[in-house]
Amino acid sequence: QVQLVESGGGLVQAGESLRLSCVASGRFFSINIMSWHRQAPGKQRELVASITSGGSTNYADSVKGRFTISRDNAKNTVYLQMNSLKPEDTSMYYCNVLGSSGVYWGQGTQVTVSS
Length: 115
What we know:
Blueprint: E1 2-7, E2 10-13, E3 18-26, E4 31-39, E5 46-51, E6 57-59, E7 67-72, E8 77-82, E9 91-99, E10 102-105, E11 109-114
Parallel strand pairs: 2-11
Antiparallel strand pairs: 1-3, 3-8, 4-5, 4-9, 5-6, 7-8, 9-10, 9-11
């Protein structure tokens, strides 16, 4: 079983920054893609950013230039640095891991950006 624990969410004002972290623990052989998704009330869950084991990244157009995803393979941890936050970034953010043993989701961490 694999567990994902997110942290770093909170309430900030527009223009401020937050850094999300997600640590994967448990029994798995390898982690391929780590990603962050978000879901606001009444909306579909959407991909925010992803990063492969080799470091290749992909971003949603809405966060390009403001968010940076990174990972520490030795610690099985993925980060999301979020700068210049906007009220429309308000959402529940979920960590996702695609590994050799399956796909796993974290419980989510709330990010709220006030105007």
